Amino acid sequence: MVKIALKFKADLQNVTDLHPEGEDFRWYLKVKCANCGEVTDDYVYLTLEENTPLKGGRGHASLVLKCKFCERENSIDIMKDTISKYTANDSNKYKSMVTFNCRGVEPVDFSPRIGFVCKGAETTTQFNEVDFTEKEWCDYDEKANLEVGIYGIEFKFDKVK
Prior knowledge:
- The protein has no helices and 14 strands.
- It starts with a strand and ends with a strand.
- It is elongated, with a radius of gyration of 17 Å.
- Helix content is 0%, strand content 54%.
- The model has no long low-confidence stretch (mean pLDDT 96).
- The strands form 4 sheets. A 6-stranded antiparallel beta sheet has the order 7-8-9-1-14-13, with no helix packed on it.
- By secondary structure, it is mostly beta strands.
């Protein structure tokens, strides 16, 4: 088993505490088979809410998939206690947002989409529909009379010891 952290980086403007909301949040990933190197054509998603039993009764994982090329069963599990908030102090720095426990597969691409939330840096305004399908997000904080936004999204995967 290999633990791999998704490290997130973005320019936060007048917002803080960016994080995925709820156990049904979908982490969209492209993954590579560690056995043959085949990468999934499409993004697959995993959630905390969905768990699939592993063959042989070895527990469960957030996602179990069979490699189309070598037919090996691989799995990836979200480590719930590693999910963290990306704050205004983290802006423009890489920070681990979640760690995955990977068996026979490793993530190679991440597609941030819907399901993120954040709040105003100077107010208590909640932004409950942060949508990254356009690779950035902006809105207006009426309490602070400020434009808010999240721009320049980058990510990388790092193995964790």
